[in-house]
Amino acid sequence: MSKFQFKKFVVNQDRCAMKIGTDGVLLGAWAPITNNPFSILDIGAGTGVIALMLAQRTFAEQIDALEIDEEAYEQAMDNFENSPWSDRLFCFHAGLDEFVEEPEDEYDLIVSNPPFYSEDYKTESDQRDLARFQDALPFEDLIEAADLLLSENGIFAVIIPFKEEQKFLALAKEMELYPIKITHVKGTPTTEIKRSLLAFSRNEITDFPIDELTIEIARHVYTPEYIEMTKEFYLKL
């Protein structure tokens, strides 16, 4: 599907190796905006869908995205320009290491759906591999960048494999970034937890919410919680 129609915007994805998936939409809908962010950064923008969702959800005046792959970067820019929020969205064509060398801004919300397949095999497509494999963006680099770029009361939110959660929490703690909300995601009531949605801040709190989200009861029969979370975006919900 080269085009994905949401309620208030369209995402073209014909040039992007990583197509729109549930992970990105989940993060875009879930990321806490309780601090009323003025500035937002999406690390590893892909099609730009997460930044677009946050443009719809917030009044942030500065929404920056970062994308290393040239085709994906051009696609994200086009999607931004064709959206109702083109004046607030901007994509940088750069790697995270370049971007943090001379940070000009701090961000009130930083989000990332990082590439996280650390298995040994590679596919035939280099572009897809770059989008899929963890060597494109190690967790350590991502967390260091968040620490560097996050404003004093900022929130850092990611979606990662559940099996990586403890490692990610430990790395974040080393950088003095502490969880404020965790949601475990299951595909159906009977399947294992597959993903972790994690939100961090610089302020350590002992009693933060940990909950669980199940996406489907049966094929294309979505749970009330998932519908509630995504109904502002998906056309058919």
From TrEMBL:
It comes from the Bacteria. Gene3D superfamilies: Vaccinia Virus protein VP39 (3.40.50.150). Residues 39-122 form the Methyltransferase small domain. Its main location: cytoplasm. It catalyses: adenosine(37) in tRNA1(Val) + S-adenosyl-L-methionine = N(6)-methyladenosine(37) in tRNA1(Val) + S-adenosyl-L-homocysteine + H(+). GO terms for molecular function: nucleic acid binding; tRNA (adenine-N6)-methyltransferase activity. GO terms for cellular component: cytoplasm. Its EC number is 2.1.1.223. It holds the Pfam family MTS. One of its GO terms (biological process) is tRNA processing. Signal peptide: none annotated. Keywords: Cytoplasm, Methyltransferase, S-adenosyl-L-methionine, Transferase, tRNA processing. The keyword Transit peptide does not apply. It is an enzyme of class 2 (transferase). Belongs to the methyltransferase superfamily. tRNA (adenine-N(6)-)-methyltransferase family. HAMAP family: tRNA_methyltr_YfiC. Specifically methylates the adenine in position 37 of tRNA(1)(Val) (anticodon cmo5UAC). This is tRNA1(Val) (adenine(37)-N6)-methyltransferase.
